[in-house]
Each structure stands twice: as structure tokens, then as C-alpha cells.
């Protein structure tokens, strides 16, 4: 399949890019997309949550009431979870949320999202360009030229376009990522995917079976 290449003014350049059916034309698999997104979000968790248990609470260990004869329940100390300020029962402990996910599943997930965006006509190829200096206004003009103002966009660039990153970082619902850093979560968490012309061949090379 062929997609026309646009310039930063939103006009056709007369060029087109042939997209590989192996990457941009597969049957989307929603389950593997869910697995890869779950894996990505799990890796973002620090896992440093911790609550104090009975042995860790700083309170008196004095026995509050005698063992028998009070007519009430037995209580060993104020550290008991039944008292306000006592220890927490089965509270959170530090842990690693990472889990194993096969590389083929990650590859299929990314191909599924890219193929779905192509089928929805929500993938745009843009001619490679950079900015002379970081200017948010210039990037907004670029989005307006493509009629993408207010839409959630992800721009995958070739790398080294630091001024593009700086120009887009303060704009809501807009993100610029390097071709080597793109992941399934970023791809699925956007309405429109913009690909720099030079990134297409790179993505195809790393995602082909």
C-alpha cells in the first residue's frame, strides 16, 4: 500500500512511501496489544509502597487488660491491628511488578496498532525536517497545517531533532519520540500517528518477522 508524503506545511510533496504489508497490513490482535500495554505500565511502577505491620509500629507493648475475667476480647498490646494507630494486616510490601513478555508478542502488538491506524486513515507520513530553534508556536503551526489542532498526536522522528522535542513538550496531547524509543503504549494512546519519512524503513526492519 502507498501513502503520500506531506511536508511540514501540510502539502503533498509528490512523493509516496510503499508500506510493507507485513508491518502495516496485519490483522490487529487486541489481546497482545493489551499484554504489551500492561507490561509497559507495570514497568513504570516503582513498587516502593509499604505499610507498617504490627512488629514495626512504635507503640507500647504493655498488656492493656488482663487475659481473663474482663468479659471482653483478649488484647496483647496497642500495636494490635484492631486499635487505631496499630499495625496494618496484609498491607502492601515493596515488590517488582515486572513480568516476562516474549519479544514476538511485543513486535506483534506494535504491528497491530500500526496496522489499525493505517486502516483508520490515522497514520500520516511527513517529510523529514527539523527546526532551527525550539519554538512552540512553530510546532503549533505545523499541527494546524495538518489540521491536527486539538487532536492527540504522536510524532515518530528519526532521532537528533532535539528542537522538535523541545518545541512540542509543552503542548497538551502532543508527543515527539525517537524511532528507537517508540512503544505500544505510546502508539495506542494517541489519535493520529505521524511518521517521519526516514523512520518507515527503520520500523519495517525491526518489526518484520
UniProtKB/TrEMBL annotation:
Top-level taxon of the source organism: Bacteria
SUPFAM superfamilies xref list: Ribosomal protein L4
Keyword ATP-binding: no
Keywords, ordered alphabetically: Ribonucleoprotein, Ribosomal protein, RNA-binding, rRNA-binding
Subunit composition and interactions: Part of the 50S ribosomal subunit.
Family stated for the protein in its record: Belongs to the universal ribosomal protein uL4 family.
Protein name from the UniProt record: Large ribosomal subunit protein uL4
Organism: Lacihabitans soyangensis
Organism phylogeny: Bacteria, Pseudomonadati, Bacteroidota, Cytophagia, Cytophagales
